[in-house]
């Protein structure tokens, strides 16, 4: 939505906004897809070579429960007190500011399509600190399956799950 707001403020045409949304979404999808394969490869290699599969699984499970605890805590605080600035699980303000500044400065360029790809990649990498929690859990589930084709299919599906909800707000 911030991307569309910037483009509207800069008086870009509807066609430009649509194309930027499409290229941005495609860049986000491909970035998450590549990140997923990278993380999958690292975990797979590390766990196979060192035999630490159970330790990795338990560590990720503990991490998931910690994140779940903070998620419920955030929900409870917002529901009870209505204070949104007490949210624990969010991108740090410096990171959000950097993302907003990157979007704002990149969209002022003449080549909007390249800029939208650049912004999609940067935003995906930076936001993966937040969205990576779910992605990591999915990747560990992929490891339980055999075969490279199931890895690709599952990683592609999870990249879609991460990116498709953004598309209506981007286009």
Please render the helix and strand layout as text:
Blueprint: H1 2-9, H2 14-50, H3 53-81, H4 93-106, H5 112-143, H6 148-163, H7 167-170
Helix pairs in contact: 2-5, 2-6, 3-5, 4-5, 5-6
The topology string of helices and strands comes to: HHHHHHH
Mean pLDDT: 78
Kindly state the number of beta strands: 0
| Shape field | flat
Percentage of helical residues? Answer: over 70%
Strand content: under 5%
Task: Determine the number of helices (DSSP H or I, runs of at least 4 residues).
Answer: 7
Low-confidence spans: none
Give a short overview.
With 171 residues, the protein is mainly alpha-helical. The chain is built from 7 helices and no strands.
Keywords:
171 residues; mainly alpha; 7 helices; 82% helix; flat
Polypeptide structure, described:
It is a single chain. This protein is mainly alpha-helical and 171 residues long. Helix content is 82%, strand content 0%. The chain is built from seven helices and no strands. Helix 3 crosses helix 5 and helix 4 crosses helix 5. The longest helix is centred in the first third of the chain and has 37 residues. It starts with a helix and ends with a helix. The mean pLDDT is 78.
